Task: inverse folding
């Protein structure tokens, strides 16, 4: 670092500035580039004041602590990386979309970033910090505050357009160059390969998760592809796992460290049924293995020793001597892999079964009162076409017909008092609402239903934030609704017709049929 002197209160205070060769500046260039891409083209739901609050808070704390200890003003390169890393991954529920200058929640960003940095000084081992500050701070924030307040950055940022290609190029290209220079590329590659293998096992076992960017649960091969190739995973492996201050020094120890992070993260991801849990599990794997690093350093070959080579370490694991001893060593290794694989599959059992069989047996015998010729053409917002180009074509007419059928089948379910019909067409809040109406109808002997006639329909995306139930398609309709009330014998008691302007939220929540998940007041945006 370059050192200068500045006068403060008649005292010459050294000023230490970073060298252009400092790897921390190169990491900062990559992370800042991702921030820029996120603001300009990827539409990250984080504002510039939130980002600056995290970075400047960490910088101020680091400068103050360093000045108190050394009497010098030192450029807070590491601290600014901590703040930038927190701001890259942290999302605050309620942040206004599309407003890069929103000051909403900036104190939360400042507090989480500042507390993350302070772990570097509060939790130490042999003169160095134990945890990657941004990593441990984020995990604690997510666990303590929960998904109703904060969220991690999505696994899937956007369709593979020019902006996403640029983000991949910056992250993978810059990350590879930096980790190679720091001799940490083997660690990063080991993590990715073992993690990919572990998630492949999960995917093959039928693992699913819900995500706010997907209409249906993300399962099997799609789950594997999305997570393993996620830009967030590459940010994690290039710029969190490979923090030189929190990884072992030896080559063998670093490779083992990367593999253990992958195994631990896989085990933590396995039982999660939504993306929030999966992302926190990924990040928490590094926290746990960092906590175990002192034990790893004692158990594994020291840096620079004769045993700190892959060949020597492998021979040590397998065992030297006769063929029987080597065979037992190999069998032991195979047994360990089998035990881990079994543990991964067993841990993933809660995340299987999100996709349910088709409901044709429930709906097949019911009359369908919907005439497709009475349904209007659908006006489709560009956001829907950008998200899923198939929905911009004939498939949207089929979705509208399904909505009309679902509404009609809801009415039949209420009149028949049949909960199985409701479960076949509704999900989530809408299912709970309609089931409550069915129970009330049985109790009171009066059943009220609605029959909708659409004059116009517009399709949009309903992207949840803080609720990991999945992306919904919003069909905002205008028209008339006829409200009918029947007695217990099915005799019509009352009838009235009135206009409506509502948004019907649909999602393929069980992986098959488009289900009605909510009816909301229309948003005239």
Result:
């Amino acid at each position: 670092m370059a050192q200068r002197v500045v006068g403060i209160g008649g005292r010459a205070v050294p000023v230490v500035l970073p060298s252009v060769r400092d790897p921390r500046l190169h990491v900062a260039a990559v992370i800042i580039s991702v921030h820029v891409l996120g603001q300009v083209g990827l539409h990250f739901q984080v504002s510039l004041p939130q980002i600056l609050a995290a970075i400047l808070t960490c910088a101020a704390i680091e400068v103050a602590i360093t000045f108190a200890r050394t009497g010098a003003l030192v450029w807070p390169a590491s601290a600014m990386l901590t703040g930038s890393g927190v701001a890259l991954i942290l999302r605050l529920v309620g942040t206004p979309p599309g407003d890069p200058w929103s000051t909403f929640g900036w104190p939360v960003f400042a507090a989480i970033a500042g507390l993350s940095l302070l772990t570097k000084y509060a939790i130490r081992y042999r003169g160095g910090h134990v945890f990657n500050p941004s990593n441990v701070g984020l995990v604690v924030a997510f666990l303590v505050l929960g998904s109703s307040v904060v969220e991690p950055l999505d696994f899937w940022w956007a369709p593979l357009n020019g902006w996403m290609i640029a983000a991949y190029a910056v992250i993978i290209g810059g990350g590879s160059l930096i980790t190679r220079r720091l001799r940490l590329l083997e660690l990063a590659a080991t993590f990715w390969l073992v993690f990919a293998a572990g998630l492949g096992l999960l995917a093959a076992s039928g693992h699913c998760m819900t995500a706010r960017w997907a209409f249906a649960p993300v399962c099997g091969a799609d789950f594997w592809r999305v997570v393993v190739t996620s830009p967030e995973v590459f940010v994690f492996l290039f710029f969190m796992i490979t923090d030189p201050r929190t990884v072992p020094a030896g080559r063998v120890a670093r490779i083992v460290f990367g593999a253990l992070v992958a195994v631990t993260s896989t085990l933590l991801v396995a039982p999660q049924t939504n993306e929030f849990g999966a992302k926190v599990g990924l990040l928490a794997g590094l926290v746990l293995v960092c906590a175990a690093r002192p034990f790893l350093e004692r158990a594994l070959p020291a840096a620079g020793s004769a045993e700190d080579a892959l060949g020597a370490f492998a021979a040590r694991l397998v065992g030297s001597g006769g063929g029987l001893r080597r065979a037992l060593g190999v069998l032991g290794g195979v047994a360990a892999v089998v035990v881990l694989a079994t543990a991964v599959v067993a841990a993933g059992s809660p995340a299987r079964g999100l996709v349910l069989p088709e409901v044709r047996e429930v709906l097949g015998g019911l009359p369908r009162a919907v005439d497709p010729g009475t349904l209007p053409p659908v006006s489709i917002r560009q956001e829907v076409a950008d998200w899923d180009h198939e929905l911009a074509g004939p498939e949207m007419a089929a979705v509208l017909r399904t909505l009309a059928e679902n509404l009609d089948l809801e009415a039949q379910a209420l009149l028949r008092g049949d909960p199985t019909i409701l479960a076949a067409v509704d999900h989530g809040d809408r299912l709970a609402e309609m089931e409550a109406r069915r129970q009330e109808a049985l109790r009171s002997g009066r059943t009220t239903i609605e029959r909708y006639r659409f004059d116009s329909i517009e399709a949009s995306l309903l992207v949840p934030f803080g609720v990991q139930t999945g992306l919904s398609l919003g069909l905002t309709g205008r028209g008339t609704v006829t409200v009918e009330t029947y007695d217990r014998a099915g005799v019509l008691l009352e009838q009235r017709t009135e206009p409506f302007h509502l948004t019907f939220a649909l999602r393929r929540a069980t992986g098959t049929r488009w289900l009605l998940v909510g009816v909301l007041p229309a948003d005239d945006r």
Summary: The chain is about 55% helix and 15% strand.
